[in-house]
Amino acid sequence: MPSTTEASRTWTVGKLADELGVTTRTLRFYEAEGLVTPARAGTSRVYDHRDRARLRLILRGKRFGMSLSEIREIVDMYDGAASSERRQLETLLARLGEITTDLQARQRDLARTLSEVGDVAAQCRQRLDELG
């Protein structure tokens, strides 16, 4: 749980984008999708601790290859009622299992491709040696 000082901290769109390693356009996109709702100070967006936490969850979901609807369900857990937490955690675990299976298959495919590349490179070297 953040301290009172941390909880009251705010970020501008530019500062938060820099901290998270994304563009300001990315943050505005997630706002337009309703995934975050920064406050306004005039025409400026002001992100609070809740927005920052949600954005970190969103970006993690994107890295995991989740769709926006899947991400929405997960980030809503951040604000969700305790009664729905079990279902949300079960949903997240199921999706993480699918992601793990997919990544393992990709890893096997990459290992196979690397092996093939090595074989072809060895054949090329052998042929070059034969050619003198």
From TrEMBL:
CDD domains found in the cross-reference section: HTH_GnyR
This protein's record includes keyword Plastid: no
Superkingdom to which the source organism belongs: Bacteria
Family matches, as PROSITE patterns: HTH_MERR_1, HTH_MERR_2
Ranges annotated as spanning the membrane: none
Protein name: MerR family DNA-binding transcriptional regulator
Keyword vocabulary terms for this entry: DNA-binding
Coiled coil: none
Classification of source organism: Bacteria, Bacillati, Actinomycetota, Actinomycetes, Jatrophihabitantales
All residue ranges annotated as the HTH merR-type domain in the record: 10-77
A GO MF label: DNA binding
Natural source organism: Jatrophihabitans lederbergiae
